[in-house]
Amino acid sequence: MSKAPNPTRIQKKNRAAILDAALETFSSHGFRGSTVDQIATEAGLSKPNLLYYFPSKEAIFTELMSGLLDTWLDPLRSLDPNGDPMQEILSYVQRKLQMSRDFPRESRLYANEIVQGAPRLLDTISNELNALVEEKSVLLESWMEAGKINRAHPKHLLFSIWSLTQHYADFDVQVRTLMGSEDPFDAAPEYLETLYRRMLTPQD
Q1: Same domain, 50 and 69
Q2: Are the CB atoms for 129 and 73 separated by under 8 Å?
Q3: Which keywords, in A-to-Z order, does the entry hold (predicted)?
Q4: What is the pLDDT of residues 193-204, one digit of tens each?
Q5: Does residue 83 sit in the same domain as residue 158?
Q6: Above 70 in pLDDT, residue 3?
Q7: What are the Cα distances from residue 110, in Å, to 44, 78, 177?
Q8: 28: domain range?
Q9: Overall number of domains in the chain
């Protein structure tokens, strides 16, 4: 069986343009509100040209989400059982906040999918994400049992980190409007670190 030929520079460029255009379109309009024609126009390609690379809107969305989820879960995977618990958690918070700053469209795309009932992500949430959260919840519980951090429900701790960091991306317009001329990311890192450090520091 012969191997598929390596994509040319133009093919790589066009695929990247399609995925970037799809990210912009999906994050703005959701999956249902987006069309192949919109994505093709955003990418600067004809619809037939786009369909040469991806046979359907579903295929584009699947590839986008596959890469997004891998990026999104990497900071949680990186919690080190051998590291200092407080620093591991605070670093996780800061990485999630930085991702909201660097990847706001990706965050909104994920949020839109969840709000719609996660029809295209339910298997991933039920399997891969669930297994990872269970693994890290056990780790957090072990740190709490050892008295290294204050006791808190481990899953709700993760949920709160997700909520507080991803809010800056998912509600970007609201946040920036209310902050006026101040960049919300100037003070957010220190605020969140103080919040979680106070919450998790063991009491004498």
Answers
A1: no
A2: yes
A3: DNA-binding
A4: 999 999 999 986
A5: yes
A6: no
A7: 24, 20, 23
A8: 1-55
A9: 2
Q: Could you write out the DSSP letters of every residue in 45-78? A: --HHHHHHH-SSHHHHHHHHHHHHHHHHHHHHHT
Q: Which of 166, 178, 34 is nearest to 108 (CA)?
A: 166
Q: How far apart are CA 128 and CA 157, in angstroms?
A: 19
Q: Which of 29, 55, 81 is the last residue of a domain?
A: 55
- pLDDT, tens digit, 9 for 90 and up, residues 7-56: 798 999 999 999 999 999 998 888 889 999 999 999 999 999 999 999 99
Tokens 């072990």 locate to 142
Read off the pTM.
0.85
What whole-number distance in Å separates Cα of residue 19 and Cα of residue 204?
A: 52
State percent of the chain over pLDDT 90.
74
**In CATH, what number is assigned to the domain containing residue 70?**
1.10.357.10
